[in-house]
Design brief:
Helix content of chain A: over 70%
Radius of gyration of chain B: 19 Å
Largest sheet of chain A: none
Order of helices and strands of chain A: HHHHHHH
Oligomer: heterodimer
Strand content of chain B: under 5%
Chain lengths: 189, 193
């Protein structure tokens, strides 16, 4: 039954997808292709759409596959399934957290994990910015995207000036909206 | 009162859900801004803890964070409401796209807007990391772990190696734990503020 398949398939994705959506893509591909819900091409396209639309990529993919396979109810079931494991795990972790956080070994582990995650996030940011500016074409010849470089510089500059002038950080939402508009103009020229 | 916090949770997370492009890391700065600075629902320290927990547990980071904040503010119902708030915008957007727009990304001005958003998201994530570095303990060990993780992750990204960030985290946790134990129990875990 398609509803049950969708639920179980995406429960698997939600339960075993560690380390964010990009780490989860191989797993999602595995589940989606093995049930025959999407072709490889359709999946690649859908990952692009999920990355570009707001919200967690896994949730977006689940909604899309669910809706394309079994309409609204399918979308609801697939989305619920993909979210359920993390929801339950956090509820359980939180009930254990208060005592666990006082444990000195847990604290030692957290002291190691925090700077590690900061390093990973920093690397993700740096890599995203540089792969926008130097998109790699097939054949591994790096090319230089002048418009993207210009836009990155202008956005970063605008953020810095705003912070100095308004004495507070530009809100992320404002930055996203500005980027969308600037992108519409600069990439259309 | 209780009703107000629920509405507040729902609306705040809907806002975060609607403007979170490009996955979990971009969302961290959004949550930090709204839940730590504006609403003061959680502290920066708690935010770092959730990020660590979210990264080490399965599922979308955004969902983990929403559940955590909701649970802390208004118990189980709060957790449900915040998580729903986080999902509703993307659910609605994708549902509409899947119904009506087959070639969504081929519409030129939409594609261009997304190229722009991608650039903005890169800067947002970079900025979030800088903010965290500023608030980090200025001690040799965290600094060293941060720099090594950064270098390792860059290498993984550039050469698209099949080495997950989870493995990096396990290594960092192990190193920190081993150093703590080998330093002797005399120092205790008093480093945390």
């Amino acid at each position: 039954m398609i509803y049950l398949d969708l639920f179980i398939g995406f429960l698997k994705v939600g339960l075993f997808a560690f380390g964010g959506a990009y780490g989860a893509i191989p797993l999602i591909r595995d589940v989606v292709l093995s049930y025959g819900w999407l072709t490889d091409d359709a999946l690649t396209y859908m990952i692009a759409v999920s990355e570009s639309t707001p919200g967690p990529i896994m949730v977006n993919l689940a909604t899309y596959v669910g809706s394309s396979q079994a309409g609204f109810l399918g979308a609801v079931l697939a989305t619920t399934a993909v979210v359920l494991p993390s929801f339950v795990i956090i509820i359980i972790v939180m009930s254990l957290l208060k005592t666990a956080l006082k444990n000195k070994y847990v604290q030692a582990i957290l002291r190691g994990l925090k700077p590690c995650i900061i390093g990973i996030i920093l690397a993700t940011g740096v890599f995203m910015i540089s792969s926008n500016i130097f998109p790699v074409l097939k054949g591994n010849h790096a090319i230089f995207n002048v418009k993207a470089a210009l836009m990155s510089a202008v956005l970063a500059g605008a953020m810095y000036v705003y912070k100095k002038a308004a004495k507070k950080k530009m809100s992320s939402i404002m930055l996203i909206v500005v980027s969308a508009f600037v992108g519409m103009i600069i990439f259309a020229i | 009162m209780k009703k107000n916090i629920l509405t507040d949770l729902l609306l705040t997370f809907m806002k975060i859900g609607l403007f979170t492009f490009g996955g979990g890391y971009a969302m961290i700065s959004m949550i930090e801004e709204n839940c730590v600075e504006k609403k003061e629902w959680i502290t920066h320290e708690e935010m770092m803890n959730v990020t660590v927990i979210a990264e080490s547990t399965p599922g979308p980071i955004a969902i983990n964070c929403a559940t955590f904040v909701g649970m802390k503010q208004a118990g189980f119902v709060g957790a449900v409401v915040a998580t729903l708030g986080m999902i509703i915008p993307s659910f609605a957007v994708i549902y509409i796209i899947s119904m009506f727009l087959d070639n969504f990304l081929e519409i030129t001005f939409i594609a261009n807007a997304f190229k722009g958003i991608k650039i903005g998201v890169g800067i947002l994530i970079f900025d979030a990391a800088l903010g965290m570095i500023k608030k980090m303990q200025k001690k040799p060990l965290p600094k060293a772990i941060m720099i090594c993780s950064f270098a390792a992750m860059m290498t993984i990204n550039i050469f698209s190696l099949k080495f997950s960030s989870i493995s990096l985290m396990i290594i960092a946790a192990t190193v920190s734990l081993v150093i703590f134990i080998s330093n002797g129990q005399s120092k205790n875990g008093g480093e945390k503020k």
